[in-house]
């Protein structure tokens, strides 16, 4: 016997031992990758970026959404040996935009400066390696 009652906003359901011993009759339906309402991950089955993914935390739709999309797309599709090393300009534009909205995009000065310097250093190393390779 299942008893259901409402207490406040919670619903309490009591089940007997027999209820738990009976196999479930629930049917599992395979996810439809074409279902526009289905939660998808960051990368869609097509390989495209899912800009509606909750994992992006709204970054793609904020005031710097276009800069974010540009930088993230560049990184995602980058074929450079050091992935994303060809995207420094896009990431710099994104960071400059975000600095205009400190309330929306709080920044930890030391870490942000460090990550930008790291990215720039990686880009310079990649450029130097590319030039060295081409001159050989």
From TrEMBL:
Region Disordered, residue ranges: 102-136
Keyword Ubl conjugation: no
Transmembrane feature ranges: none
Keywords in alphabetical order: Disulfide bond, Mitochondrion, Oxidoreductase, Protein transport, Redox-active center, Translocation, Transport
GO molecular function: protein-disulfide reductase activity
Biological processes per GO annotation: mitochondrial respiratory chain complex assembly; protein import into mitochondrial intermembrane space
Name of the featured protein: MIA40 protein
This protein's GO CC annotations: mitochondrial intermembrane space
Residue stretches making up the CHCH domain: 64-100
Gene3D superfamilies from the UniProt entry: 1.10.287.2900
Localisation: Mitochondrion intermembrane space
Stored Pfam families: CHCH (PF06747)
């Amino acid at each position: 016997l299942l008893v259901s009652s409402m207490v406040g906003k919670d619903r309490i359901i009591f089940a007997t031992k027999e209820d738990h011993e009976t196999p479930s009759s629930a049917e599992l339906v395979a996810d439809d990758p074409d279902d526009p309402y289905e939660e998808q991950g960051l990368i869609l089955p097509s390989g495209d970026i899912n800009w509606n993914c909750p994992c992006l935390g709204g970054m793609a739709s904020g005031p710097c959404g276009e800069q974010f999309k540009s930088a993230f797309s560049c990184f995602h599709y980058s074929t450079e040996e050091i992935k994303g090393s060809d995207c420094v300009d896009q990431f710099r534009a994104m960071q400059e935009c975000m600095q205009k909205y400190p309330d929306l995009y709080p920044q930890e000065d030391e870490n942000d400066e460090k990550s930008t310097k790291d990215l720039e250093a990686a880009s310079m190393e990649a450029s130097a390696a590319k030039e060295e390779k081409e001159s050989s």
